[in-house]
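seq:
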Amino acid sequence: MENKLTRRVKIQPSDADCNNYLSYPDIFALFQNMAVDHSEILHYDQSILTPKGLFWVTSKSKVRINERPKQGEFVDLSTWPEKPDRIRGRRYYCFEKDGKRLIEAATEWAIIDRNTNRLYMINQLYDDNFEFYPEKLLPEPFSRFTAVYAGEPFAEYTVRSIDIDFEGHMNNVAYIRALIGLFSRKELEELDPKMIECQYKNSCYEGDKLLWYRVDNSEGTELCAKLEDGKEIFFAKFEK
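struct:
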């Protein structure tokens, strides 16, 4: 089986932001789409998992941005899984152009058994003779979000029908779109994140109101989305 999937993609107008660069949310969207395509090749995509009562979840992700491609440019997008432990695994992604690495990312993922609401042993997905692609990206541990997110929220967002995936909860990429949309064009240019890290803690659903809190520190900007009852849903960090 193909342990690493690489495809040449063109940055389309719908992928670009107001400055004509690949938008931050569409970085995550292209990674998600490639992961789905690769899971089909490896025969553990959702069409295989759903009849078994299983579904994918991504719990953490981080993206390092060296350079964002512009609309109309062609880039080589690659993805590959790391050998998982019993219940969790990592998947890696990168954008390259003319041999230069523009963006690289890592996600942590798992599979939930909806019948038991427990984690499924993902190491069962692979044959014993499957050869994993050896390269590892962003090997440092994912961040722990320990700031105190209190006081008045700086923004609110109501989850809409367009944010919901087939499982009925807010899609991972929809969190990023909502988050980026909280900032003005000028604010995003000032933030200019070179590293974006996210943690998906709990699910939310159509009609839920997300209250967004922000903490600025020496490393960058941390953000937390909570429900009105204080339940923490999503964390993010921007670093320059």
